[in-house]
Amino acid sequence: MKEFFSAYGKVVDATVMVDRESGRSKGFGFVTYEDASNADQLVAKMGLILDDKQAYAIL
Fold first, then answer.
1. How far, CA to CA in Å, does 28 sit from each of 1, 25, 32, 49?
2. Domain range annotation of the chain
3. What is the rounded (10 degree) CA torsion for 14, 17, 27, 53?
4. Which CATH number is associated with domain 2-54?
5. What is the pLDDT along the chain (59 residues), one digit of tens a residue?
6. 5, 9, 26, 51 - which has most CB atoms within 10 Å?
7. Of 59, 11, 9, nearest to 31 (Cα)?
8. Residue 3 CB: number of other CB atoms within 10 A?
9. What per-residue string of b and e applies to 14-29 under the rule 16 or more CB within 10 Å gives b?
10. Would you say the C-alpha torsion 50, 14, 57, 44 has a positive or negative sign?
């Protein structure tokens, strides 16, 4: 995930949320950019697909 979102700026942190019991992805995560304007670039590109899933940005 960090590699994918790095196309829009320097990623400081990227975390995929996982189920504590099964260890499987919950299907969402969080990305923190060094510069908040990079998140704006991502929002402008809404409709991105990551691992066959729709990518959404919530600011």
1. 10, 7, 14, 13
2. 2-54
3. 10
4. 3.30.70.330
5. 899 889 889 999 999 999 999 999 998 889 999 998 888 787 777 666 767 777 766 66
6. 5
7. 11
8. 8
9. beeeeeeeeeeeeeeb
10. negative
Structure tokens at 17: 């949320």
Q: What does the block give as tokens for 19?
A: 């189920």
Q: What is the pTM of this model?
A: 0.69
Neighbours of 1 (CB within 10 A): 16
Take residue 15 and report the two structure tokens written for it.
Answer: 């975390």
